[in-house]
Amino acid sequence: MSEKPKKMAIIVHSGTLDKLYPVFMLSSTGGAMDAEVHLFFTFWGLNAVKKEGLESAKLPGIMSVATGMMKGKIKKVGTPSLTELLAMSRSTGMVKIYACSTTMAFMDVKKDDLIPEVDEIVGAATFLDIAMDADVQLFI
Amino acid sequence: MDITGVDIELDCRGMFCPLPIVQLKKATKTMKPGQVLRLTATDPGSAKDVPSWASKTGNRVVEASEDSGVYTFLIEVS
Q1: How high is the ipTM of this complex?
Q2: Pairs across A and B, CB distance < 8 A
Q3: CATH 3.90.550.10 describes domain B8-76
Q4: Contact (Cβ atoms closer than 8 angstroms) between residue A112 and residue A134
Q5: What are the chain A neighbours of B14 within 8 Å (beta carbons)?
Q6: For the purposes of burial, counting CB atoms within 10 Å of the CB of A43, is it exposed (0-12), middle (13-18) or buried (19 or more)?
Q7: Fewer C-beta neighbours within 10 Å, C or N terminus of chain A?
Q8: Residue B17 is a catalytic residue
Q9: What is the pLDDT of residues A16-39, one digit of tens each?
C-alpha cells in the first residue's frame, strides 16, 4: 500500500490475563492489517513485559484461582498463549513495545528485568506524540 | 471476474480470531501481485473480518461464500 499506514496507540495499564488477551489480539491483528501498532506498558501492565510476565499473568481478584481453568479453555479452542500472540505480533514487523520509565523507577524494575522485545523505555511525551496522530487510541 | 487458478490454499478451519487473519497476512506476504489465495475458515467472525482485512491491506476479495458453516474466500493479492 502506498498510502500512509494506519496507526494504533494503546496504553496497557492492566497486567491481568483477561485484559492482556485483547491487547495482543489487537496488536497481532493490527500488524496483520498493515497498521503500525504502538504498545505502552505502564503500571500493572509493566509486569506483562517483565521476564516470565506473560506466562504468570492471572485473572483479576478472586477469579485468579480459576486462571488455570481459563487457560485450559483458551488452549482447547486452539487460541495461542499470550507469549505466542506476542511472537505473532512481532513477526508482522509492525508492533513496537515501550516500557514506562516512571513505572520502572517506582516499581524498581531494571532494563535487564524486561523481555528483549521491549524496544524503548519512554515517558508520556513519547506516547502522546504518537497518539496525537494515531487512528486508534485505546487504554486497556 | 473469472478466477481460473488458485495459487495458494490456506486452510484455517477450526481456528478462531486472530489466527485466520494472522495466517492470511503471513501467506499473502510470500505471494506476487495478481496471485490468488483460497481461504477456508469456520470462525463466524471471518465473514466480516476477511473483507475488513482486505480493505485495509489493499487486497481484493474476489469471491466469498458460506456453506454449512464453512466460509470460503478467493483473495487476489495486489
Answers
A1: 0.86
A2: 43
A3: no
A4: no
A5: 78
A6: middle
A7: N
A8: yes
A9: 999 999 999 999 999 999 999 999
